[in-house]
Design brief:
Elements: H1 2-19, E1 21-23, E2 30-32, E3 43-47, E4 52-54, E5 59-65, E6 71-77, E7 84-90, E8 94-97, E9 105-113, E10 119-121, E11 125-129, E12 137-147, E13 151-160, E14 174-178, E15 181-182, H2 185-188, E16 191-195, E17 200-209, H3 216-231, E18 238-245, E19 249-256, H4 259-267, H5 278-286, E20 292-293, E21 298-307, H6 318-325, E22 329-334, H7 343-349, E23 353-356, H8 362-380, E24 383-389, E25 397-404, E26 415-421
Parallel strand pairs: 4-11, 17-18, 17-21, 21-22, 22-23
Antiparallel strand pairs: 1-2, 3-5, 5-8, 6-7, 6-9, 9-10, 9-11, 12-13, 13-24, 14-15, 14-25, 16-24, 18-19, 20-21, 25-26
Helix pairs in contact: 3-4, 3-8, 5-6
């Protein structure tokens, strides 16, 4: 009797779903949601929570599915009609999507596949991306100095709260104070703001996983993703070093600025051994990375690892690799081979972003890498130097402060300050 009652309830639920329609977010158009036969399983407990506000453009998705599904397919769109697959037949109950658009409402749904004849789709969930401080700016001071006869100079950098560099700012975008009083043009003999006033060098290390756990098609796609990253636009002063790794870690190109040489070195990488020394590759690539920012130049460095597997060699530990990557710029890129990839580990290793997609959505990966190239260009153009002439004289210490106008963020980095001595001024 109880089982008959359950069948009746299930039939009523199916009838209700078939008869329901949903607003697709495009101004009233009605769309009938397709359904699958009801089963005893359910896909539920989404994160982000349905109808929630997510205060980041880098969003982690997760869910819970009853039973033991073999795989999951996730669709996402900024309207109901635009939902397209962002992952197909993945085995993890987790996926990350970076670079979503602030202010957009997104629709998403998960389908769990149990076998050839049974699958179960979740409800269609929505969330809105809205940063806590949409117009917030944060600054970092990279140095302060003085010049005779009476110049005060500060080097600094500006970014938004998503760590994207901000370029194009002018002298009128800031407020300037000396010893707590506003600096006026008539007193300071003009405040001058320069953008990126010194040479900038970006050293990039690319690591390509060539272990034979990756089949020929996947390996070609992985190398093509790295080549596309290079073709998206090298900076004039960007130097690229290329390695491959499986059992051994091998350098194939040293610090080149020639795009053709870089692309050819990646294209020429052949399949390697059956084991994958992923942790060792991260350690070797990240350990020498360092940034140098001075009055004369800026040098930053980054590691980009293209991998389709996980560490199988166990020569090093995950904690050793994480320690090597800490406080360094490390990007992980993957085309998941579902039985090999370890998404959680790759998320643990990255510090600048984790980009991946199923092979059927390579264009999505290229879009993500394009967004990261844009981020690099913004970073390069986010350095500034402010200089002003001060009327103060004598062997005394003074305080200079800089503040971004109309900044809704008032936390750490919302203003910069520094101390100088005017004893050499005349």
């Amino acid at each position: 009797m109880k089982k008959i009652f359950q069948y009746i309830i299930s039939a009523l639920v199916v009838f209700w779903l078939v008869s329901c329609s949903f607003d697709d977010g495009s101004g009233g158009t009605t769309v009938v949601v397709p359904t699958t036969p009801a089963s005893e399983y359910e896909v539920h407990t989404p994160s982000p929570v349905h109808n929630s506000i997510v205060r980041s453009t880098n969003v982690d998705f997760s869910w819970v599915a009853d039973g033991e599904p073999e795989s999951y397919t996730i669709v996402l769109g900024s309207t109901f009609r635009s939902m397209t697959p962002i992952a197909i037949n993945i085995t993890d109950r987790f996926i990350n999507m970076p670079r979503l658009v602030e202010g957009n409402t997104y629709w998403w749904q998960v389908t769990a596949t149990y076998n050839d004849t049974l699958s179960e789709s979740s409800e269609i969930w929505t969330f809105t991306v809205d940063d806590l401080y949409p117009d917030g700016f944060t600054m970092v001071k990279h140095g302060m100095s003085t010049l005779t006869p009476h110049q005060v100079i500060m080097d600094f950098q500006v970014s938004n709260l998503n760590s994207d560099g901000i370029s194009g700012l002018t002298v009128d975008d800031f407020e300037y104070f000396e010893d707590g009083d506003p600096i006026h043009d008539r007193e300071s003999n003009e405040v001058v703001l320069r953008q990126t006033p010194f040479p900038y060098w970006l050293k990039t290390t690319i690591m390509i996983d060539n272990s034979t756990s990756i089949d020929a098609t996947e390996f070609a796609d992985l190398k093509q993703a790295a080549i596309n990253f290079i073709n998206l636009g090298l900076l004039p002063t960007q130097q690229v070093t290329v390695y491959y790794f499986s059992n051994k870690i091998v350098k194939v190109l040293s610090a080149s600025r020639n795009r053709v040489d870089i692309v050819n070195s990646i294209a020429a990488i052949a399949p390697g051994d059956s084991t994958t020394n992923l942790y060792g590759a991260v350690i070797e690539g990240a350990t020498p990375l360092h940034d140098q920012i001075s009055r004369d130049s800026v040098q930053t460095s980054m590691l980009i690892v293209f991998t389709d597997g996980k560490d199988t060699q166990a020569r090093h530990t995950l904690n050793e690799a994480i320690a090597a990557a800490t406080n360094k710029k490390v990007v992980m890129v993957s085309l998941p081979k579902l039985t090999e990839i370890d998404l959680i580990v790759l998320r643990d290793l990255e510090t600048e972003g984790f980009y991946y997609t199923h092979q059927a959505s390579l264009n999505l990966l290229y879009q993500q890498l394009g967004a990261y190239v844009t981020k690099m260009h913004r970073y390069v153009n986010s350095f500034y130097q402010v200089e002003y002439s001060t009327p103060v004289r004598g062997n005394f210490y003074h305080q200079f402060m800089l503040r971004k106008r109309k900044n809704l963020y008032d936390g750490i980095g919302s203003n910069l300050s520094g101390q100088y001595n005017s004893r050499e001024f005349f």
